[in-house]
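Record filed here:
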Amino acid sequence: HGGGIASARFFAQLGARVTVTDLKQASELKKSIARLASYKNITFVLGRHRERNFTGADLIIRNPAVPNTNKYLKNARNAGIPVHTDVSWFLDLLRNNNDITIIGITGTKGKSSTAALLHRILEQCGKKAILAGNIRKSPLDFLQIKKNKSLVIGHWSLVILELSSWHIESLYEHKL
């Protein structure tokens, strides 16, 4: 859904050393790798996982579809490494920002339609809103990074997030 690419790009733009690890082979991820090729601070570990990439990290951004019971994520947590999704990291950044209203939409069916419709209605009413989450757009794509590596939250006052059950699991974990 774009969260992996957005997360890698976001942290690479901040100057972090980023490791992208996936069980898929490079040939399966060719398009995604190409989108990140300009970042020299991104390393790819593909076709396997290495324990050290999880227990030696400062932070892990997991794909929402990777279960919390994954052994690598469990080992990272046991080593004190925070494990987020792109959505939980984004909301953690906004945790103390009272100027932004966040609307989360979840459920079994109709999440995308409801979130898109609400976004459209709010925009038609002149509200500055972003639409992100499980709807194939990472909220990290809406954060601006200045040349001095500082973050600009943006000029919007509403965030509409389509949330899968996997996202909610991560939000619960981080008390969001």
Remarks:
- The first strand starts at residue 18 and ends at 22.
- Strands lie at 18-22, 42-46, 60-61, 83-84, 101-105, 129-133, 144-145, 151-152, 158-162.
